[in-house]
Write a structure and sequence with these properties.
Blueprint (H helix, E strand, L loop, with lengths): L3 H7 L6 E5 L2 E7 L3 H4 L1 E6 L2 E6 L16 E4 L2 E5 L3 H8 L2 H5 L14 E6 L5 E9 L2 E9 L6 E6 L16 E4 L3 H7 L5 E8 L2 E6 L5
Antiparallel strand pairs: 1-2, 1-10, 2-12, 3-4, 4-5, 5-6, 6-7, 7-8, 8-9, 10-11, 12-13
């Protein structure tokens, strides 16, 4: 099992990441451009959404303004894009994601990562990524996990140009506190963190001074 804090400290740019554990889920966003860094998480009635910290500096909202977290009945849906809404519209995690593909941001072709937490403690993770010019849709289903352990998936393996896509199964990782995760994320690139632990939600925004 990977020490999640050491992994974050050693990885300057995993992009956007989801860690799902027993009764908890974390979602963070990072950014290299001014447009990506100009964001905050704000609470909504059924989850959270991204907003521009300074609306005057927002140049293209298409891939950076969305609802990362929404409830769907008794389930919690967490994604890195507007596929959150697609899943909720279909009422089904897999059915919704089968209608979507990776982001059209050549040359990175950023993967779409998604998770759903069920009331019984089981959960699913998914990544939609480009391979050989087509969309590869991978799904990973878990009946649950042990205390202190989670499964992590991110958009990228690390920094680069183009950015290297995440590969393989979700990483087995330790589950630190939200404050520890926020502190371990790269100080230059981190933007926001959502943490839901036993139903208690905490938001961290670099642009708000966190």
């Amino acid at each position: 099992m990977t020490d999640f804090l050491e992994f974050l400290k050693a990885t300057s740019y995993p992009g956007r990441g989801i860690l799902v554990g027993r009764r908890c889920v974390y979602y963070f966003i990072m950014g290299r451009s001014e447009n990506s860094r100009n964001r905050v998480f704000v609470k909504t009635e059924d989850g959270i959404r991204t907003e521009a910290h300074d609306p005057a500096k927002l140049s293209d909202p298409s891939l950076i303004i969305y609802h990362p977290v929404r409830t769907m009945g008794r389930d919690l849906v967490v994604t890195n894009g507007d596929q959150t809404d697609t899943i909720c519209q279909h009422g089904d995690f897999r059915r919704g994601l089968m209608t979507r593909e990776y982001e059209p941001d050549e040359p990175n072709w950023t993967p779409r990562i998604s998770a759903i937490m069920h009331e019984d403690g089981s959960f699913e993770l998914s990544i939609l990524k480009r391979k050989d010019g087509r969309c590869l849709r991978e799904f990973f289903c878990y009946e649950g996990c042990d205390e202190g352990k989670g499964y992590f998936i991110s958009t990228y393996q690390g920094d680069g140009n183009p950015l290297p896509t995440f590969t393989g199964e979700p990483m087995e990782a330790s589950v630190p506190s939200p404050e520890e995760v926020w502190a371990a994320l790269n100080a230059d690139n981190k933007v926001s963190l959502y943490a839901n632990v036993n139903g208690e939600v905490k938001l961290f925004n670099k642009n708000s001074g966190d």
